[in-house]
Glycoside hydrolase/deacetylase (Hesseltinella vesiculosa), 273 residues
Amino acid sequence: MHTRVLLLASVAITAIQGFAFKETYPVAGSVPAPKPEWLALIKNVNITNAPVYKVAANAGPQAPKDGSDPYCDWTFTGCVRETDLYQCPKGQWAPTYDDGPTDFSPKLYDYLDQHKLKITLFMVGGQVVKFPELTQRAYTTGHELAMHTWSHSYMTSLTNEQIVAELKWNELAIKEVTGVSPRFFRPPYGDIDDRVRDVAKALGFVPVIWNHDTDDWRASEDKTFLPSWIDGNVTQWAGEAATATTGGISLSHDLYNITVDAALRYLPSLEVS
């Protein structure tokens, strides 16, 4: 089974030491306000009139009680549109990692460099500002850098203006480090509907979901979850690849030491033999 960069690899530029941002960025983790010129990009766009959902404590947006899904909400029903990327052609695999860069990312990057593997990294805006050198390293070594919003909020709980801000601040941070604007974004928690899609399309961005989930984040946040289950998930996917009708986009995280350690164990299962 082939592992590969999701789409286009980036062109390397000179490495950055002690990078200093020219832009003044919002507080990391906060839902930011947009720049006025960004709002002009959606001014005359036909955007689906889906509701802005409320988010309960420790839970995502709540599905309609009647089970309906008029706005193709992936969170509620797994609905996808033709414009969503969520799988690869048969025989190909796209490993993706969310929430970085972090203190634990270098160990993952080292492994990928040693094995000449390329992946897609969905980076959170605040983390890019915190770790510009790691962002630059990932870029110059040929990985696909993509967006995971500024604050990692549920996107269907945000207004159209807030969605613009989440994506454009995330884009700006990556562009200031690399000189290149990312094209792809992953909605946190996979939380996307037609309203979010319309806003993102108006900004020129393409949503990426997944069709295989390692559930690796649970190893750090759920005491009942065994790290060996992550390995078991990937081993099962690799075993089923020969008869599967499609390839995979797998969701993992370089957020914790335990999730990176798991990646170093299971990535060989996805490599070409």
